[in-house]
Here is the input.
Amino acid sequence: MLTYLLRRLGLAAITIFAITLVTFVILHLPPVDFVTAYAAQAAASGSAISPAEADAMRLAYGLNQPLWVQYWKWISMVAVGDFGRSFEYGRPVTEVIGDRLWLTILLSIGAIIVTWGLALPIGIYSAVRQYSVGDYIFTFLGFIGLAIPGFLLALIVMYVGLRVFNMNVGGLFSSEYQLAPWTWAKLWDLMKHLPVPMLILALPGIAQLVRIMRANLLDELRRPYVVTARARGLAERRVILRYPVRAAMNPFASTIGYLLPYTVSGSVIISVVLSLPTVGPLLLHSLIAQDMLLGSTIILLLGVLTVFGTLLSDLLLMWIDPRIRLGQLR
Amino acid sequence: MLSRRVMLSALAASPAAMAFLRSEVARAADLAASGLVGELQGPTIITDPAKWPKTFAEAPMLAEQVKAGKLPPVAQRIPAEPLVWQPLNEIGTYGGTWRRAFTGPGDGENGNRIQSSDKPLHWSADGSKIVPCVAKGYTLSEDGKTYTLFLRKGMKWSDGAPFTADDFIFWFEDIYGNPDIVPTPTPEMRPKGKPGRMVKVDETTVRWDFDVPYYLFEEIMAGDTAMGGGQAVRQAAKISFGAYAPGHYLKQFLPKYSSLEAVNARAKQEGFENWVQMLHFKKDWELNTEVPVLGPWRTVRPINTAIWLLERNPYYYAVDTAGNQLPYFDKVQFTLAENLEIINLRAMAGEYDEQERHIDLGKLPVLLDNQDKGNYKVHLDLGFAGSDFMFHVNQSFNGDAEIRKWLTNADFRRALALGIDRDQLNETFWLGVGTPGSPAPGETMPQSPGPAWRTKWSTYDPATANKMLDGIGLAKKDSDGFRVRTDNGQRLRIEVIAIAAFLPYPKLSEMVADQWRKIGIQADVKEMERGLGFAKQTNNEHQLFVWNNGGTELLYLFPTWAVPVIPGAAFAPDYATWYSSGGAQGTKPDDPNILKIFDLYTEASSLKADGRNHNAQEIWKILVDQQYGIGTVGQSPAGLGVRLVSNKLGNIAARVCNAQHCRTPGNSHPETWYFKA
Here is the structure.
């Protein structure tokens, strides 16, 4: 067990190093640098950067140095925990990400809780009461949830919210609270804004997990051990929750690997559409703007979290499911 | 609108021109009746000192600080020679926060433009005349070699330090003259390649000396240029132009005034790599809340957060005719939106008090629908540039000899131009508010070659286009009816690079590609991400590049989208390099018409206004006749021209000058707007 863990940790370190290298190279593949992207943005809003000005910017950002020099500068800074300054924001990258990180985590964890809190019971209900009216209704809703892309749903909800309910559109705070210091009123304002994006973020996940839970549980319910348990007169509740549900939970555990990076990035597209102040839009924007240090750092962070998330979910699976544990050790 | 109609009636009565005339008159009548397009107007500068106010008043928030002893009284804060504005309608009242939207730290222009009264000189409300701004005036010597700028006596920076000629000399010697900060000098300071000099005459007078006649410099000092753009835009984003800088504040960050070790140590301590990085931060008004400014506002919460907040500059140099120090608004608050849809939705909900930036013309019907609910009014500010969507045909393309042969063939380009149904484009994408025709600037502009050049090669005539294409050797077609290459018999495919900006350019290009099927031309529209598209274009890899020609209505101030004189111009990147390097790099064009354009352009900087405008008209005639750029629909509100204004605001112009040089909405002077009680 310990050697297994050590081997996995060693592989994780190598993977992360490879991620930094690949990230940096891929980000530099397009023939576009930050200054070109900046000039393009200026042009697209009716202004212009002259060649003399572009020269000055390239000098200031060190973009006239060869790629390997830029990588070495970055990686040796990262090694001592300094992620540099974002080109576009002119602030330390850690601050730029930090600004948005806790709201992102709050929103993502909220979305995960909503997803699991709804998907688990509905999935169990649908499997146990297969082909009941309730099952049909949930199946119907589930397919709609799977079929409608989250960003479209977000747009529709926003438009209806604006036209029918006169709601604020997008963001997590009303404009009067944006600058206000933290008070109960501001917290309440945030609470009022949270449910809609949380639900929209959760919906595709709910639909998917309901279907998986239902299918897995149906498989389990037909197993002989369930029949035996029933024959022995175990209470129905205990029969279902104690063994088949536990076995059907495997997919939940295996998705934790993806959930960890997700809590940090949120869903990029939905966050952009809803204008949520989370890390997702920041990542997208840094890539478009070729803000190298910011983009590289976010991708590095996501890479590290994916690697550890996968490790975590492997360990968790071993813990929940003895079959995997025994298979692994053999 | 009437003046345009009168001018058009003088048009030669060719059938195409008559059809154009009819559609133009109908369009003008529609627009006038819609009430969306008003007359150009704005506040007026009172230059006669006899009419200036004798006593001064200030905003309540500043009066409190004066009472508390934190600020000197208002009369001591404004210059002895202030800029006196007669507001558009009435004297305003103080207070309130102007709410706006911005899209992040890359959207600095959003604020730079409303801060644009920190320019040395500006433009009148209709965009036609140079008017005083930071400087009260200028003179240009008879020989065109000496330019003198006169500053205001007693004018101060936003921290109360005096603003004098020394701030210009500081910029020239210590910022512009330092290659660590400015690696490449601006061509604007080097007429005919000969560097100019800046000299302090006295406390309020600065002189520029040039070795050759340089009459154009008066326009440059008023334009949205490296020299005349003002501190806000020209000293942000690691750029260091702008002609003046707050020397008293910035000297502490320069090695010259202490030592290299001292400034580098300070930089390290404040978390910068070296002193240059620190200086770039310190002089940037969007990021640094401490840097002194001259404009109506100063940043109190930087642009790199979710809200960019500006507050009034207590030393602002302008007053209204009643002696109230401007601006009227206390604050300007930009709220971050992650995408443009959100901005448009919030605008409809009335969450912005005034917003013209990032508003989408395609949403006009919904915007109008929500006017009452959102308590705002929509204004359309028509531009002056000839084309808000055009094809820039790369004359120096060398990726494919056959394609190059056709791109550089005038009749091929003319045939493409005749194959475009501009009315269909106008109705579909401009809702009919644009003007179809060539890329030449609007007829009200001094550099317009005249109304006949609006229609030249720029009407819909597929029959003639087909005949011309047959005539130049492209008569052979494949089984689908497309013309084929002369070298290998394969279908001739022209690649069009389109980036989504201002209008959905890729969709517009698809419509034109569809129209070109009727003349047997296959155009492949490649939609590209902005940065990538521009990189390909500056690298000379494009065949046809889709963009507008905004700014070219004043050709010498913003030539990029009309003539290839600045490196990277879509017209012919390689020739542009040749021209701007004085023949040292790039390739010399073999097209005599392009050489003629270069001669006219070079000569213009040493000509007085009339001569310059004449040269520009001659250049436009060549451009339209040769169709190096194929125009479609222009003079529209597509860029920065759909303006939503809350009904609560006063002194709002019916139409704002929507042009590059006007710094829209800058020359409408937001410092004179106010909240009605």
The two ends of chain A are 11 Å apart (CA to CA). Residues 25 and 67 of chain A are 8 Å apart (CA to CA). Chain A has a mean pLDDT of 84. Chain A is about 75% helix and 0% strand.
